[in-house]
Amino acid sequence: MQIRIKATGRLEFYLSAETKESGRLPVPDDSTLQDIIQLLSIDNDARFLCTVNAIMVPQSQFDKTIIKNNDEIIFVPPIRGG
Amino acid sequence: MSWHNQVLRVNLSRGQITKEPLNLNWANNYIGVRGLASKYLFEEMDPTAHALSPENVLIFATGPLTGTMASTSGRYAVVTKGALTNAIACSNSGGKFGAELKFAGYDLLILEGKSPDPVYLSIVDGDVELHSAASLWGKSVWYTETELKENDPQTKVASIGKSGENGVYYACIVNDLHRAAGRSGVGAVMGSKNLKAIAVRGTQGVISKNPSEFMSVVKETSELLADSEGRKSLTEFGTNAMIDSMQAFGGLPTHNFQAVQFSGTDKINPKAMVTKKENGHVNLLSNKACFGCTIACGRIAHVDKEHFSVADREEYWHASGGLEYETAFSLGSAVGVDDIDALTFAGYMMNEHGMDPISFGVTLAAAMELFERGIITTEDTDGVELNFGNAEALCTFAERTGKYEGFGQVLALGSKRMCEKYGHPEYSMTVKGQEFAGYDSRALQGMGLGYATSNRGACHLRHDVFSEDMEDQTGNGKAQPVKDTQDKTAMIDSTGLCLFTTAAWDTEQYRQLLNADLGKTWTTEDLLKSGERTWNLERLFNLKAGLASADDTLPKRLLEEPAPSGVAVGKVAELDKMLTEYYEVRNWNEKGEPVEELLDRLSI
Questions:
Q1: What counts of helices (H) and strands (E) characterise chain A?
Q2: Taking the alpha carbons of B161, B167, B170, B173 in that order, is the dihedral positive or negative?
Q3: B447-457, pLDDT tens digit by residue?
C-alpha cells in the first residue's frame, strides 16, 4: 500500500528525494506507525511529534497505531519560541 | 564581575546627565535586564501615569552576561509602561547595541521627562551629550542610523522612525538596522519624550569575577548548544521552520484567526525562501548572528527587483532582514498573503519605519475582516480593496502606517483601539491591547493561558509549554507548567542571554554562567525564585496601573468559535478552567492579586 507522508524542518532529511518530491511512500500492508518510523530510519534520539490524518499520536501509541492505505502521516519537530 | 556598577541617568526635561552606582541589592534579587529594570521602574514611576506622558520612565537595561563570551550575550531590553497596553512593557532585542552600551561602562540607561525639542543621546564611553535631532526628526530609522554612524562606523544606534514620533501605538525601537525592541509600543514612548536616537560607542569591555572558570563554563555550554537539534534547526531554517509545523498541527492563525491553517504556507516557508524563481531570484541570501551568538537564527534576504513593490525603487534592492516565523505569520497567514516578496518588502517597512510586525499585521488582518464584513469600505481605506490576500494592500499600508499617512493613521491605533473605533471590539485578536503572536490558543491551550496572563499583553515568549501543548490538546494540567516556565523565562530574560539557548540549556547552565561571571553561589532555586519575584513585581505594577483579573482573558472568538481544522478541530480555548487553577498555583487570590504570604516569601 501507499501512504501520504511529509516531514518538516530537519526531519525532512529522513525522506528520500523521491519521497519528498512525490509526498508518497510505499509501505507493507498492516504496518504500524512504529514500523514506518523504523523504515525511514528516524533516529530514536530525534525528538519529534507525529500526526496521522491530522490527529496527534502519542509516542506510547506508535506501535499500536495501524496505518491504512492513503493515510497521511506528518512528522513535526518540537516547536518553541519564534 | 560583569557589572560596571554604573547607571546612566538622563533627565530629558532638564537636559541633565548624571551617573550613579547600580543598586547591587536589587541586582542580587532581580539579576539584571528585565527583572532589575522592572524593579527600577516600579520604584521610580507612578504606574497610573499616562504611558505617553513625561512621567513615564524609559529604561535600557543590560544584564550581567550581556557583552560577555557566553553564547547569545547580545541581549538588552527596554522597560517602560507600554503605549499599546498601558501595562508594564519589557521589549527585548539582540544585535550589537546592548553589548556596546555595556562596553561604554553602563549597566542601565534611565531616561526621564521629555525634551522640549527633538534630541538624540550620544554616548562615547564616559562622554555623554544630548544633541539636537532637528535634522533627523521625520526621517526613517535607516537614515538616522546611517547618519549617526558617519563619523565612526563602530557606533551602535537604537532609534525610532516617523511612526514612533507620531505615536503609532506599536512603534518599536530598532537597533543595528533590523533588530528591534519590538513589542508593546516602546518606540512610541521614546517618541513622546522627543528622543530620536541613542548612539553609543564603548571600548571598555567587560571583566568576569572568575575569568578562567567562566571561560570553562562558556566552552561547555556553547558545545552543549552547538550539539542540540533545536540549535541546528534555528541555524539552518531560522525561526520560520515553525510555519510548517504549525500548518501541519493546525495552530497557524489565518485570516484574523478565522482559520488555523493557511493554504499559502508552501509559498512563504523556509523552502520557498531558498527556491529559485523563473527569473533566477532567490529570496534568502544568508543567515546572521547577533553579538556573541553561536545560533545565528537571523535571515538576510532581498526583494526581487521585478516585484511590484520595488520595481521602480532601486533604494530597496539591497539586502536586509528577512522573514522570521512571526513575520511570515503576521504579514502572511494572518492577512492571507502568500507573495514572499510582498512579505519581505513589508518586513523592510517595519524595520525602516520602526514598527512591530506582529501588531501591524494582526491589526491589518482585523481591518481586512472589518472590510469583508462591510463594516468599513473603500471610503475608509484610501480607495484600497482591503480583502484578505491582497499583497498590494499589505505593501501599501505597511508603508503608509510607517509614514503615518492616510488609513495608516487608523491602523496606527492597533487592533483593539481600531476595532473599538468601528464598534466591533470582538474582531480584535488581542490581550491587554497587544496583538497575538502566531500560535492559535484553541490548538495550543497552554499558550492561551500564557497569552491571557502575560504581564505585557499577548505574548508567546513569556512561557514555554510548547511540548505540553503539542502532546495534549486540552487545558488539563497546563496551569503549573505555564506558571513554572513564566518564572523561568523571566529569569532567563534577566541574564542578558537569548531565550533560544533553551534549545539546549536548563536552569543549571544559566546558574553556572552567572555564578562564574559574578562570583555568586546562587542555586537553581534562587534563580527560579528571582524569576517568580520578577513576575509578581510586574503583576503588582499592572494592578497599580489599573489592570485587573478581567484583563486576564482571551477574545470571544477563541473562547466560543471552535477551531475549524487541524488536531484541535472543534475545540475552543479552555481558559476558565485553566485560569482558576493558575491563580491557585500562583498563590493569588480570586482577584488575581498576590497574597501577602507570597510577597513576604519573595521579599517584594
A1: 2, 5
A2: positive
A3: 999 999 999 99
Does A80 score more than 70 pLDDT?
Answer: no
- Quote the CA–CA distance of B155 and B157 in Å, as a whole number: 7
Q: How many CA atoms within 13 Å lie on the side-chain side of B116?
A: 3
By C-alpha distance, the chain A residue nearest B229 is A46
- For B423, other C-beta atoms within 10 Å of its C-beta total 9
Mean pLDDT (whole number) for B345-359: 98
> DSSP characters for B253-275?
-BTTTTBS--TTGGGTSHHHHTP
Helix (H, G, I), strand (E, B) or coil at B241: helix
In 3D space, the residue among B308, B328, B325 whose CA is nearest the CA of residue B316 turns out to be B308
| B430-452 average pLDDT score | 97
Cβ contact B249–A76 (<8 Å) = yes
> Are the Cβ atoms of A82 and B569 closer than 8 angstroms?
no
pLDDT digits (tens, 9 = 90+) for B110-134: 999 999 999 999 999 999 999 999 9
Q: Reply yes or no on whether the pLDDT at A58 is more than 90.
A: no
Nearest to B77 by CA among B21, B28, B11, B30: B30
Helices (H), B425-523: 445-453, 466-471, 479-492, 507-518
User: Bridge partners of B108?
Assistant: B7, B61
Interface of A with B (CB under 8 A): 6, 8-10, 46-47, 49, 51, 54-56, 58, 74, 76-82
Which residue from B242, B471, B567 is facing A54, i.e. has the nearest CB? B567
Cβ partners under 8 Å of residue B139, min gap 6:
B147, B161, B162
CB B72 within 8 A of CB B47: no
Q: Does the predicted interface ipTM exceed a cut of 0.85?
A: no
Task: Please give the mean pLDDT across all residues of chain B.
Answer: 97
Quote the pLDDT of residue A44: 63
The length of chain A is: 82
Q: Is the pLDDT of residue B80 over 70?
A: yes
pLDDT tens, position by position, B209-265: 999 999 999 999 999 999 998 899 899 999 998 998 899 889 999 999 999 999 999
Q: B528: burial class by Cβ within 10 Å (0-12, 13-18, 19+)?
A: middle
* Percentage of chain B modeled with pLDDT above 70: 100
pLDDT > 90 fraction of chain B, expressed in percent and rounded: 96
Report angle CA B520, B75, B151 to the nearest 5 degrees: 120
Check CB contact of B137 with chain A, cutoff 8 Å: no
The answer to whether the CB atoms of A82 and B324 lie below 8 A apart is: yes
Residue type, B293: C
Calculate how close chain A gets to B325, using CA atoms only, in Å.
Answer: 6
Amino acid A82: pLDDT: 59
Q: Looking only at Cα atoms, what is the longest distance across chain B? A: 67
Question: Of A5, A8, A20, A76, which to mutate for an interface test with B (greatest number of B Cβ within 10 Å)?
Answer: A8
Amino acid identity at B382: D
Give the length of chain B. Answer: 604
Q: How close, in Å, is residue A28 to chain B by CA atoms?
A: 25
- Residue B503's nearest CA partner among A50, A59, A10, A81 is A81
